[in-house]
Structures are given as C-alpha cells and as structure tokens.
C-alpha cells in the first residue's frame, strides 16, 4: 500500500471504530503499514538496514491512549555505531513524511525519529537517557517521561527494553531523582473550582470547553509512569500498567476502572472532533448533568491517585 | 489667614496629584494593550490633555460654574480671575483643581477608543466632550444645577468624572466596533492580552496615590484634617476591591488573574469616590469589596455582549461608578451628610429611600445624557470624517506607525519597510 492508499483507508474507517481500544489498534495498524511502506522505499534507495533496529512510538501512542486526531511521537534504536545513524535518520524522515501524508501532523516539539535526538544506537540511547536523568532539569525530565512511555511497533523489542532497564538501574542508584520526577509532573491545571464547578476555557475558540488531557488525564498517566519506574515495569500502556502493578500496589484497584471509563468517556465525547486542537477538549454545553458529575469524579480521583502515589514514592524511595 | 493659605496649598497639591494620574492612565492603557500601539497611547494622551485644558479654560469652566440656569452655566468663559479673597480658595487654585477632573473624565472616555480610533477622532472628540458633555453633568451636580438642588451626593466624582467618561467610552466602543481578532465567528471571544502587566500594576499604584489628591483634596481645605478620614476610606476601599476581585476571579476560573485583580483595586477607588466623605470606614471596605466583585462580573458581561472594552473602562468606571454613586444612598451617615449640609443620610442610617432615590436619579440622568450626547457626537463625526476608525491595514500595522510614523518600541518591532527590504 502506498501512503495515499493508507490515507484513504484511514479517512474511511477512523470514525467507524467502536471504542478506544479498537481505535488504538486501528492507529497501530496504520502506523505499522506506513512504516513498512517507508522501509521498502528506503531499502530501494539505500539498501537493506545496516543493523538490527526497532521503531517505537512514545507519548499517547506509546500509552495506547490516542484520540481520533493525534500527532507523531516516535524514535528509533539500533544495534550498531554512529556510522549507521544517517541511514536510520533517513528512514525516520521517510516515516515522518509518510505519517504526515496519512493524517498525523508532525510533532511541534520535534519528537520524531527524523531528529538526531530521537534516533540512536543502543549505547547512545542509554547515555542520553542517563544524561537526562543526571541533569534532571524540567526539559530533560520531560524528554525522559516522553521516552519512557514507549513501545515498539516494528523491530526488536529487546533493544528498547535494554534502555529501559538501564534506567531502572540508574534510578535504583540515584533515588533522589524521584523527587525531581515528582516535581516535574506535580503542576496540575485546576479543573474544579471552589464551588465544585468545572472550570472551562474562558476565551478563544474553545471557550466553555475543558482541556481533558491537562485537567483529567495527566494525574493518572503520571502516577502510573512513576509506579512503573519504581516497580521496574516495562509496559507503556497505562491500562496495562494498572493491570500489572496493582498486585504490588493494591490501592490502584479502585482507580483502574475509573481510568478505563475515562478513556471511554473521552472517546464518546471527542470522536467527532474536526481537528487535532478540538480533540483535546470536551464542550461543557454538550455534557449532561451526569456526564459533568462523572467528569468531576475523574478529576477528583486522579488528584487523589497522584497524592497517594507521591506519598508512596516519598516513603519507599526518598527515605533511603 | 494661615489656614486659608494652607487650604489653597492642599488643593494645589491635590491638583498635582490628580494630574499625575494621567501618567497612571498612560501606563494603564499602554500596558493593557499591544506594544504596536504603546507610543500612540502615550502621545495622544498628553496631546488630548492639552486640548482638554484649553477647552476647559475657554468654555468648560464657564459651562460648569458660570451663572446660568438649571441645565448649564453661561459666564466666566476664557477664565482669568486673579483675585484672592481672604476666605476660601483662590479662584485660580479652584479652577486648576476643577480642570484636572475634566481631564481625567476625558482620558477615561478615550479608553473606549483604544487600539482602533483615528488620531483625528481623538482631536475632535476631545474638543466636543470637554465642551458639551462633561461640563453639563458637572454643572448639574457640582455647579448648582438641578441635581445639586436635590442634594445629590458625589464627593469627588463617581458620577461626574467616572460615569460620564465611561458612558462616552461606551458610545465610542459601540460605534468603533470590536478590534480585529477579538471575536471569532462562533461568537467566542479571544483574550488579546496586554503587552506589559508591570506597566499596568505600576499604573494602578500611580492612580491609587493620585486618588488621595482626587478624593482628599475634594475636602477643599485642611480644617479638622478631614482629608485624612477621606483618604483612610479611599485606602480601605481600594484594598478591599483588589482582594475581592482576585478572590472572585480565582473562585470562578481557578486562576488568580492579574489584570482582574488590578481592575479590582481601581474599582474600589472608583466606588469610594462618591462616598469617601459620607461613610464610615467599615462601609468603605464593603463598598470597595462590592466594587471589586462587580468589576469582574461586568467585564464578563460586556465580553459576552461582544462589546470590546480593551482596558475595561466601561466596567471599572461605568458599572462601578454607578455602584459608587448609589452606595451613599445606603451608607451615608447622618453626621457626614446632614451635618455637612450635603444631602441626607442613607437607607441604613435612617434616611429612608429619599437619598437613595436622588442618587439613582442622578446616575440615570447623568448616564443617559453622557451616553446619548457622546453617541450623537461620535455618529456625526463618523459620517463627516469618513469614519473614525483606522483601516484594517493600519490597525494591523499598529497606530504607532499609522498615526505617528514611528514605533514606541522601535528596537522590538521592525519597521515594515525594513521587513520588506529583508525579503
């Protein structure tokens, strides 16, 4: 299939997915198909891949939480040295261009395999991630969090797992970095006011709408990432993290269904969004009274979950 | 004799303080709007102050305080009284102090012109407002006109200065229509943020201090040091206004919005302007706090009504000006009204509804007059001058360049000809 065919396929079926799981499976299928087409193109021009590699997606794609409209966040890891880098950067560029044609805008923050920062050999990835954690600045930890929510779409998963394992090792030896990781995600945009009312946007085209990602999703996603780090867990999907981590952290049980319901809620209310901007918002005018109650509950539970996670990490990692 | 001289000195100090409020308005308007218009705002404010001063000297003062009828004064034009009686204020001192109020009202009115009116519109309206709008309302309340006969209380000008200026601003805002990019097709409103919140905050501080002259010197003397009491009430109301505004905007939006907080302080000052010499300090706190709450609601309402008010003049000076005037109808004490031979006590001090009724009548009549006459003047100007709004291109390029030929921040905004050359 060429890119145009994949694009038509996307346009025809994207709004026909029955729930958020099938939507994410659909996104994966499109991505997989695009990468294969890109690999073929690059192989025709540059020859076969000079080293084993893995192409991985990050952020919401990594966490299997994509909406109908979503941008690109991806990277490449390969086993080899710096000589092979140009080949994989070219492959990354071909994939980014292909995904753009299909309907995934390029990432504004340039988190893409076409960028030197997001395509490395295993060793260089390990060095870069370690450097991010050593620096522990606001920006470097944002890069780290984006990276850690990653999963392989094509290629050898073990390459990515190797980098993640090195991360666990670093954090075990430097537990104080958890403090910075917590601080990095502690700012939460307020979604509920003192009168218990929802706090929508006050101006601009999205006036009267709630930004779901920043007010509601973030505390769940960030909590589960922090717990996955502490538990040395490799999976990136937040739902999978709930499933596998609740054994060691039973307090997660009461939030697991809530989070799954939140994914459904978002899918129901944003599946008809017309663009990437709109897909992050839910209009309060279109919500019923019970929808609003449910949304407030998502926000309250998320904030509660984050507080519990924070206390737990402070107790277990920062008291050493 | 020493007391008389001290009275004169105090009022002229008050005059200086009020004139410095113009500096506050320059910073307020420039800080609350975009940098491409900053030089224009600073320049046109000083320029129109010049026009306002000459018009006030020529006819304004005469229309307010000259011998005339219930509607308008008709003597003392081209003022130049050098006499000095051994009692009361020197006529020139009194004249200068009164002139400052006219200039402040004019500057408030121009808030409604911000970021889109032609410079020529400022020139013509400065003349007509200073001659035909402000003096009439001032005559009615302060110059022995029909509202003064009813005992209308307005200690330092909530109605005369603030409401009159705001009503002219409302007329201008309606005729000029919203700025480009303010409203979307679906009716939603965009926040066109001001370019410098620090300017805006310093403006509020400058205005706050100036207000001590505005209200404090409106005692017209130093006997009993009553000005201290007036300034105390002024301070309390401004403080309560700032706190109340920050609280309400935080409660409703989750954000402690800085511009709203600053408008709250100004709202407290506007609200207490009418009542600062009539009420007790606890009432000043309440009056200021209610002003602070109202300003937030008013800003929201004007925005929803698609009335683009770039520097919130309509809410701060109009809506709160109304509240400030009516507040004496509730809170004026017996001692500070009847005792001072100025109107009656308010509803909460046994005065019944009479003073409240007078205050409401005064607000309604003054507001309607200022709005209708300003609207007619501006409509006629719009027809005669081929529009009072700059073209779309001029508005986009900024009034600094379109009306004056140079930017207020030349280093930060490349001149369009340089931009062209660079391509």
TrEMBL record, chain A:
**InterPro entries from the xrefs?**
DUF294_put_nucleoTrafse_sb-bd (IPR018821), GlnD_Uridyltrans_N (IPR005105)
Spell out the CDD domains in the cross-references: NT_GlnE_GlnD_like (cd05401)
The segment(s) forming the DUF294 domain are 177-306
For this chain, one GO molecular function annotation is: [protein-PII] uridylyltransferase activity
Pfam families attached here? DUF294 (PF03445), DUF294_C (PF10335)
Domain (Protein-PII uridylyltransferase N-terminal) spans: 11-137
- Provide the protein name: CBS domain-containing protein
Q: Which species is this record about?
A: Gracilibacillus ureilyticus
Automatic annotation (TrEMBL), chain B:
| Keywords recorded for this protein, A-Z | Ammonia transport, Membrane, Transmembrane, Transmembrane helix, Transport
Question: What biological processes does GO assign it?
Answer: ammonium homeostasis
Q: Where, subcellularly, is it found?
A: Cell membrane; Membrane
Q: How does it sit in the membrane?
A: Multi-pass membrane protein
Which terms does the record give in the GO molecular function aspect? Answer: ammonium channel activity
Classification via PROSITE patterns? AMMONIUM_TRANSP
Q: Does the keyword Transport apply?
A: yes
NCBIfam families from the UniProt entry: amt (TIGR00836)
Q: Which organism is it from?
A: Gracilibacillus ureilyticus
Q: Which chain regions cross the lipid bilayer?
A: 12-30, 42-64, 95-114, 121-143, 155-176, 197-214, 226-251, 258-275, 281-299, 311-332, 356-378
Could you tell me what this protein is called? Ammonium transporter
């Amino acid at each position: 299939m060429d890119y145009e065919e994949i694009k038509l396929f996307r346009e025809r079926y994207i709004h026909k997915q029955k729930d958020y799981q099938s939507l994410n499976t659909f996104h994966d299928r499109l991505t997989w198909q695009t990468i294969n087409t890109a690999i073929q193109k690059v192989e025709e021009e540059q020859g076969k891949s000079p080293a084993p590699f893995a192409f991985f997606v990050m952020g919401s794609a990594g966490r299997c939480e994509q909406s109908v409209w979503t941008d690109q966040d991806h990277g490449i890891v390969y086993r080899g040295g710096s000589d092979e880098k140009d080949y994989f950067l070219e492959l990354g560029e071909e994939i980014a261009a292909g995904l753009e044609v299909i309907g995934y805008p390029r990432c504004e923050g340039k988190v893409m395999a076409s960028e030197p920062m997001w395509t490395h050999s295993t060793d260089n990835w390990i060095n870069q991630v370690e450097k991010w954690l050593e620096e522990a600045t606001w920006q470097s930890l944002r890069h780290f969090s984006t990276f850690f929510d990653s999963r392989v779409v094509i290629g050898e998963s073990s390459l990515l797992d190797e980098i993640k394992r090195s991360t666990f090792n670093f954090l075990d030896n430097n537990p104080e970095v958890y403090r910075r990781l917590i601080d990095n995600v502690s700012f939460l945009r307020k979604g509920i006011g003192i009168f218990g009312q929802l706090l929508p946007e006050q101006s601009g085209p999205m006036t009267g709408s709630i930004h779901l990602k920043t007010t509601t999703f973030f505390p769940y996603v960030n909590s589960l990432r922090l717990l996955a780090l502490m538990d040395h867990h490799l999976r990136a999907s937040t739902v999978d993290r709930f499933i596998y981590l609740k054994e060691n952290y039973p307090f997660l049980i009461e939030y697991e269904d809530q989070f799954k319901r939140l994914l459904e809620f978002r899918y129901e209310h944003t599946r008809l969004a017309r663009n990437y901007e709109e897909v992050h918002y839910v209009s309060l005018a279109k919500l019923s009274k019970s929808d609003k109650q449910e949304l407030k509950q998502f926000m309250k539970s998320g904030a509660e979950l984050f507080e519990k996670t924070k206390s737990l990490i402070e107790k277990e990692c920062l008291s050493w | 004799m020493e007391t008389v001289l001290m009275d004169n000195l105090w009022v002229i100090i008050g005059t200086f303080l009020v004139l410095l409020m113009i500096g506050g308005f320059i910073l307020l308007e420039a800080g609350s709007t975009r940098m491409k218009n900053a030089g224009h705002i600073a320049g046109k404010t000083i320029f129109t102050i010049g026009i306002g001063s000459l018009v006030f000297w020529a006819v304004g003062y005469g229309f307010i305080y000259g011998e005339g009828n219930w509607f308008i004064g008709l003597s003392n034009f081209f003022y130049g009284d050098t006499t000095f009686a051994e009692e009361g204020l020197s006529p020139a001192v009194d004249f200068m102090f009164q002139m400052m109020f006219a200039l402040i009202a004019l500057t408030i009115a121009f808030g409604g012109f911000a970021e889109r009116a032609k410079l020529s519109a400022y020139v013509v309206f400065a003349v007509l407002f200073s001659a035909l709008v402000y003096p009439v309302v001032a005559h009615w309340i302060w110059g022995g006109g029909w509202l003064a006969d009813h005992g209308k209380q307005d200690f330092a000008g909530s109605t005369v200065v603030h409401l009159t200026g705001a009503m002219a601003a409302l007329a201008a805002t309606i005729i000029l229509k919203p700025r480009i990019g303010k409203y979307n097709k679906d009716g939603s409103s965009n926040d066109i943020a001001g370019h410098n919140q620090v300017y805006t905050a310093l403006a509020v501080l400058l205005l706050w201090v100036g207000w001590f002259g505005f209200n404090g010197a409106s005692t017209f003397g130093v006997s009993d040091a009553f000005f201290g009491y007036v300034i105390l009430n002024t301070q309390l109301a401004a403080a309560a206004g700032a706190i109340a505004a920050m609280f309400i905007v935080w409660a409703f939006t989750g954000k402690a919005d800085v511009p709203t907080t600053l408008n709250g302080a100004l709202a407290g000052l506007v609200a207490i302007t009418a009542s600062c010499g009539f009420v007790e300090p606890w009432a000043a706190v309440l009056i200021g706090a209610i002003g602070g709450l109202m300003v937030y609601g008013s800003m929201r309402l004007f925005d929803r009504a698609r009335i683009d008010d770039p520097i919130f003049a309509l809410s701060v000076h109009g809506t709160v000006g109304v509240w400030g005037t009516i507040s004496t109808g509730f809170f004026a004490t017996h001692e500070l009204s009847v005792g001072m031979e100025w109107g009656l006590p308010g509803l909460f001090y046994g005065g019944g509804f009479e003073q409240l009724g007078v205050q409401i009548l005064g607000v309604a009549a003054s507001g309607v007059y200022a709005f209708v006459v300003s609207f007619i003047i501006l409509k006629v100007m719009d027809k005669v001058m081929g529009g009072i709004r700059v073209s779309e291109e001029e508005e986009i390029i900024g009034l600094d360049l379109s009306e004056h030929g140079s930017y207020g921040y030349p280093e930060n905004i490349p001149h369009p000809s340089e931009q062209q050359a660079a391509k």
